Automatic annotation (TrEMBL):
Official protein name in the record: Aminoacyl-tRNA hydrolase
GO biological process: rescue of stalled ribosome
GO molecular function terms noted in the UniProt entry: peptidyl-tRNA hydrolase activity; ribosome binding; translation release factor activity
Keywords, sorted A to Z: Hydrolase
Organism: Zunongwangia profunda
Keyword Hydrolase recorded: yes
Length: 134
């Protein structure tokens, strides 16, 4: 299990001016929050978890292995920061999960019988279409 508090300590935040709700207020304040997480230098994640994150979120990761998330939904910088942290933790949770191993299954008896019956019917159809003189 990943220690969330240690993970949050490794995050960098930047507040920037945002579009969206706020009217004239939006032009004066930096309420949008950007979260930066360097995957390669993380001491909390294992190498396997880092690889899984890079594969899962390859479109959100820069060439420098930095995951960038943004949130500017609210007028409040604090709300945006907590929202982007929650989004990040949820992404980490889903991105580091091991994929389920597929269990190979064999077709059942009835499925085999049904297939053979269908083949037999098809063969009889073809046989009945043949020219009897040949």
């Amino acid at each position: 299990m990943i220690n969330q508090e240690e993970l949050i300590k490794e995050l960098d935040f930047r507040a920037v001016k945002s579009s969206g709700p706020g009217g004239q207020h939006v032009n004066k304040t930096a309420s949008k929050v950007e979260l930066y997480f360097n995957i390669a230098s993380s001491s909390v994640l294992t190498e396997i978890q880092k690889e899984r994150l890079q594969n899962t979120f390859s479109t959100r990761i820069t060439k420098d292995n930095i995951l960038i998330l943004q949130n500017g939904n609210s007028r409040s910088q604090h709300k945006n920061k907590s929202a982007v942290i929650n989004q990040f933790l949820e992404m980490i949770k889903t991105g580091t999960k091991a994929p389920k191993v597929r269990k190979k299954t064999k077709p059942g008896k009835m499925a085999k019988l049904k297939r053979l019956r269908a083949k037999k019917i098809q063969a009889e159809k073809k046989q009945s279409r043949k020219n009897p003189l040949k």
